[in-house]
Structure formats: structure tokens, C-alpha cells
Amino acid sequence: MPVIKVNNATVHIQELNKGAKETVLLIHGMFSNLSVYYFNIAPILAQNFHVVMYDMKSHGMSAKSKDGYDLNTMTDDLLALMEALELKSVYLAGYSYGGLVALKMAMRYPGRVKKLAVIEAPDPSDNETLGIIDIYSKEFLVDYINNFTDTTKMRMGKRQLDKNHRMYEYLFNETSIKSDMHNERAFFKDATISNISHDTLLLYGKDSNCIDSGKKLYDTIIRSKLVFVKGDHNVPIQQPEEIANRLKDFFEGWHIKFKQINSRLWQGLRS
Amino acid sequence: MDTVTKRKLNSEEIFAALKVFITEVIGEEFVEDMDITRESSFTKDLEMDSIEIVSFSEKVKAHFGENIDFTGWLSGMDLDQLINLKLDDIIKHIETCQ
């Protein structure tokens, strides 16, 4: 299992196509892990990019942490990870809460982000997740899994249910995640969001309850493009190929395509 | 088990190696109660979640080498295929690529 030490904590990372010149860095959402990208999305991006995925603190196979789930600390963690991997600037994509981390990264460290992709980032002020945190119990988890994760076709057995329950119990009862997320409620009202000058792709599910958040970001970020994909909040799991290709096309842009055409022309002339 | 195997392994040897990886990933205490067969599916029978399958994939790559392109092979599958993936599918894939 590839792990690196970042700020004295163990971070699980996965990299594909290490030799590529440009890097795409992928941030997963809260209560998820890097596997949301690993199987389908990352391999498609790795056709042309060095791809880096990492597990956030207390998620997946990264070390647990009692605090630091606010967007400032999360972006400091990300910056430290980039330093550790010697990445000067990256094409950055984040899903759900990871989308908020990606936005904050572009706001705080604009020079470290080449282009920005935000998938299904919720407005924390009307996010149902915050409600879930408040009413969490094991019975709630069972009900939630049975009723709301059906669109991802994943079913959980007892071991998985217990494993998930342990993760939620730890995060909600032993860490600052609740208060940290609550403290981000006003994030969409932060005037510096409108300072984001990066080319920004906003990807949302047509049936998602986060559509309004996408529209708000579209109205706020000058160089943004809003694209709707078939699906709901779980679009990266429902439509991984489309999400990957949308990201790939956006990150490649004309710059890389032009280089590829040049390279093919050059090879043609040489043969 | 993290060294790349050079010798061509037969089906039984691959199956034995995969069982070791599964035990390492989900823990001996859970494997004791399981009957791991070639027909076992990852999500339904072995109850592995996606991050455990990532961990398992890394072990397969480290042991059998990059030639089998395990991640690339998985990436060609849709969600239904991944959910229904059986140990035997992986054994056959590794046999073909060796």
C-alpha cells in the first residue's frame, strides 16, 4: 500500500502514469475514499496525465485525525501533499466536499492550480449532509443505505455495515468534523470565490439535489462552464466514463491537443 | 508476498495467492468464517468494499507484475461487472497474461 508521511501523518496515495509531464490531482468526498476514482476515472485520465489520488485524513487507508476538517486545514494538507510529491501545480478535481476543498485551493493557492474541476460540490448552507451528521445513529445508517444508496447499486453486508458504522462513530463522536463542517456554512458567501480566475468546469447530475449549488458557482466564477450529466449526486459512480472523459477533454484543452498534433506531424515527417 | 513472481503459476497457485491477499486485506478473523472458492464474488460473497478491492488490486500488481495490467482490466468493466466479479475471473485473467 503506497503511503507517504505528510505533516507527520500517514497518507494513502495512488498514482498512475508517473512519467507523464502534467498531473491531475483528484480529491474524493467526505465519508468516501479514493476508490471513487481508482477503477474507472483515473485510468482514463492516466492515458495522458500523471494521476494522483489520496485518501483524506480518517478516510480510506489514511491515518486518523481528531481535528482539521475545515477547508483551510484541508487545503493546507493538500498543499503539503503536493510539496511532498514535488508537484508545483496541478489540474485539480474534487467531488462533493472534495469539490469545496478544490475551490478553496484555487482561492488560497491560485498558482498551484492550472485548471479547476468541481463535481457535485454542495452549498454547505443547505447541505443535507449537515443534517445527517446531527441525527446520525446506526439505525439511521441502515435506513440511509437501504434507501439512498440504491442508485449506486452497492449493497452492504454485516461486516461492511459495522466497518462504516465504526468510521461514522469515530468521525462524529471523536473528531471535530461536525463543528468544522458547520463552520463552513457560509462558504458560498465568501466573496473571494468570485476571485477564482481559473478555467473551471462544474459537473453536476441532472437529478442531483445539488444543482442549485452548481448554478450559484456558475454565476460567481467568471471563467466557469456548467455541465449536467445524467445521474444524481452519485454521478462519478453512475457515469464514471462520461465524468472521466469530460475531465480529460477539459484538462487537455487545446494546449495539449496542439502538442499532440505537432508530435504526430513531426513523426510523420520523420518516417 | 510483495515480490513480483517471474515463474508462470498454475491456476491452483494463483488461487492460493489470491486467498492470501484477501486474508491480508479483510483480516483473518473475518476470513475464518468464510468459504472462499473460485466462485466467490468480491462484493456479495466476500463483502469487500471498494477501498479493500483497491488494496487487493495493489497486492495483485505487486505480486504478478505490471504486465497483467490489473487496474486497466478492471477499468474496462462497468459497475455491474465489478459487483459480480468472481475470483475465477481474476485467475483466468492472470493465467492469460502470464
Question: What does this protein structure show overall?
Answer:
The complex is a heterodimer of chains A (271) and B (98). Chain A is α/β, with parallel strands linked by helices. Chain A has a single domain, classed as Rossmann fold (3-Layer(aba) Sandwich). Chain A contains 11 helices and 8 strands. In chain A, helix 9 (211-220) links the parallel strand 7 (200-205) and strand 8 (224-229). The longest helix of chain A is centred in the last third of the chain and has 31 residues, at 240-270. In chain A, 40% of the residues are buried. The mean pLDDT of chain A is 88. With 98 residues, chain B is mainly α. Chain B has one domain (11-97): Non-ribosomal Peptide Synthetase Peptidyl Carrier Protein, Chain A. Chain B has 6 helices and no strands. In chain B, helix 1 packs across helix 3 (50-64) and helix 1 packs across helix 6 (87-97). The radius of gyration of chain B is 12 Å and the shape is globular. Classes of the chains: A alpha/beta (271), B mainly alpha (98). The A-B interface holds A 1-2, 14, 16, 33-36, 38-40, 43-44, 55, 60-61, 152-160, 163, 237-238 and B 26, 30, 43-44, 47, 49-51, 53-55, 57-58, 71-72, 74-75, 77, 79-80, 82-83. Chain A: It holds the Pfam family Abhydrolase_1.
Give the CATH topology of chain B. Answer: Non-ribosomal Peptide Synthetase Peptidyl Carrier Protein, Chain A
CATH fold title of chain A: Rossmann fold
CATH class of chain A: Alpha Beta
**H and E string of chain B:** HHHHHH
Strand content of chain B: under 5%
CATH class bucket of chain B: Mainly Alpha
Mean pLDDT of chain A: 88
Main sheet of chain B, how many strands, which sense, barrel?
none
Taking all residues together, what is the mean pLDDT of chain B? 86
Show unreliable segments of chain A. none
Strand order of the largest sheet of chain A: 1-2-4-3-5-6-7-8
CATH-defined superfamily of chain A: Alpha/Beta hydrolase fold, catalytic domain
Question: Percent helix among the residues of chain B?
Answer: 55-70%
How many independent structural domains of chain A? 1
How would you describe the oligomerization state of the chains in this entry? Answer: heterodimer
Query: Over all CA atoms, what is the radius of gyration of chain B?
Result: 12 Å
Shape of chain A: globular
Q: Would you identify the CATH architecture of chain A?
A: 3-Layer(aba) Sandwich
